[in-house]
Design brief:
Layout (H helix, E strand, L loop, with lengths): L11 E5 L5 H12 L2 E7 L3 H14 L3 E5 L8 H4 L2 H9 L5 E2 L7
Helix pairs in contact: 1-2
Length: 104
């Protein structure tokens, strides 16, 4: 039996912290080009997060961004919604969250 799908990146979701800028953004775009949907966090710049979502979607993949400040432990509870984000990715309804637990 052949190893079908070995090396294939389709039907995968990557979770990237700090995905809206710099290395995180480059990683997200690179993975999207390889067929991976993207779930990422950003600290404060919602416009950059929205820009990344548009870029990933222009490649033909799905993306969702969640606000998470890793320096503020109180923001972690809101990030638990990432599981909900994965489900929304599967349904093609990706959110942008500006407070970690509220979707726009």
């Amino acid at each position: 039996m052949a190893n079908e799908g070995v090396g294939s990146m389709t039907n995968r979701i990557a979770i990237i912290t700090g995905g809206s800028r710099g290395l995180g953004r480059n990683t997200a775009v690179n993975l999207a080009r390889r067929g991976v949907d993207i779930l990422f966090t950003y600290r404060a710049n919602q416009k950059e997060a929205e820009s990344l979502i548009r870029e990933v979607e222009s490649i033909g993949r799905k993306a969702a961004g969640f606000r998470l400040d890793t320096g503020d432990i109180r923001s972690f509870d809101g990030f638990v919604v990432a599981e909900h984000g994965i489900e929304l990715l599967r349904q093609r309804q990706p959110p942008i969250s500006d407070r970690g637990n509220q979707f726009q």
